[in-house]
Amino acid sequence: MEWWKKSIVYQIYPMSFKDSDGDGTGDIGGIIEKVDYLKELGVDVIWLTPVYESPMDDNGYDISNYYRINPLFGTMEQLEELLEKLHDRRMKLIMDLVVNHTSDEHEWFKAARADKNSKYHDYYIWKDSPVTDQQSFFSGSVWEYNEETNEYYYHLFSKRQPDLNWSNREVREEVYKLINWWLDKGIDGFRMDVIDLIGKIPEESVMVSEKSHTYLQEMYRNCFAGRDVFTVGETPFSTPETAPLYSAKERRELSMVFGFEHLGLDEIRGNGKWDLKKMEVNELKRVFETWQKALHEKGWNSLFWSNHDQPRIVSRIGNDTVYRKESAKMLAMILHGMQGTPYIYQGEEIGMTNVRFPLEDYRDIETINMVKEKQEAGWSMEKIMEGIYAKARDNARTPIQWDDSEHAGFTDGTPWLKVNPNYKEINVKRTLQETDSIFAFYQKLIQIRKEYDVITTGDFELLCGEDERIFAYVRRSGNEKLYVIANFTDKMVDCGNCSSLSFMEGECLLGNYEPEKGKDNLLLRPYECRMYAVGF
Ligand code: ISL
User: What residue stretches are annotated with the Glycosyl hydrolase family 13 catalytic domain (predicted)?
Assistant: First the structure.
């Protein structure tokens, strides 16, 4: 079995992880300080979001040089030191590959925008007029005027992130060159930013096409064939039908993909992320069920609740007040019992929560642009702020709360984004002193995944699918069965009348409450979760 099928990945957003030089921004030195913390958690792979040279219009997802480290984060020597420290501890490092677009400060774009006759002009996408009314993800048209050439260039994200023209063979060769350069350095793979978009057809506002697959297969032949590395595609447009096309081994594209359907359930469909609706547990169950079945023996899934673009999961669908610890553990168990490679986003392991800052304290370009757009569209400030509290990406980007000292021990300087005011209560130091911590629960889930192959290989069946209070499923491989059941409410739930839950009378492998004996076994307390192994 491929090593990455049994691995657990931990995502680091360096700006917010740990600052080692007092400038208020996290850096590679800070990550080096915390390698043993990550080892203790038990994760196998670290995914580092972009640390390359960048003007930081989108916090590093706007790269101006793929071969250099942004001095804000440190030096290439420090990156090499980090890689060595991880490898010494039998951990791996994957980097972020952002090649749908570059920064407008990349040399290619500077040459492209200055001169129509430069060979770099065709590295990007140009039209004499805006040929569609497509909107960018960060508000406004995807077409931006460029005075020097009297043309419009295409950008799906900010106007400072022009999209690369993947139909140009030289562009693709440049990308393969940089991938190989990093792999030769010894890194263990890549997370690929919005990689399903490389096959877009801008003239038709079409976001994905067959070409996404053609290019990924070409990339595989040029970069990954013969190397034992790991690739995960961020594929926001993937579906249960297309996810296996990206991740089936024989298609030689990617190891696995991130599908986002489960995280779109708190949005009014078609209205974008800011128009909120309540997430229905039964819808969540159906989405997971569909993806679990679609990829079983046909591809490979990534399991994630959180990342640097998503609000904190315990605030989003758990309970971040009275039952914070219980619900954080419950959500972890539901996810980590499924088939796929689990991802833990920094701070999730201590149950960090969303924030409610005054507007001027938000830093994310997506949020800042959105406020302007929605105000123009007539939204009330109250509705805008509700959207921000629920969905702003800065929820996930507040600094990691290491201890209860000033700025939560993240920096000696002034943090680039404010620390969550709850840091005195929620922090790593305190968590590590508790025996029943969320951190300890993740450790156990990680151990169980290593021990029970059924989690990696078994099939998936939803149990009591109609009961909107609980999420229960069984994973099966031969006679071995692993059951997971979770109460998604803050009330007691009696499972006594559901016959498919009779496994609850057996002995529990892991739970988030002290076990109770006898018939009370069929009562689930608020946000209670349990895992049972049968037939081992
Ligand atoms: O965050 C989102 C919506 O709020 C997503 O639509 C997100 O923009 C999308 O998943 C792509 O994200 C990735 O590429 C972006 C970057 O800003 C994100 O941080 C990155 O994860 C552009 O590079």
Answer: 11-397
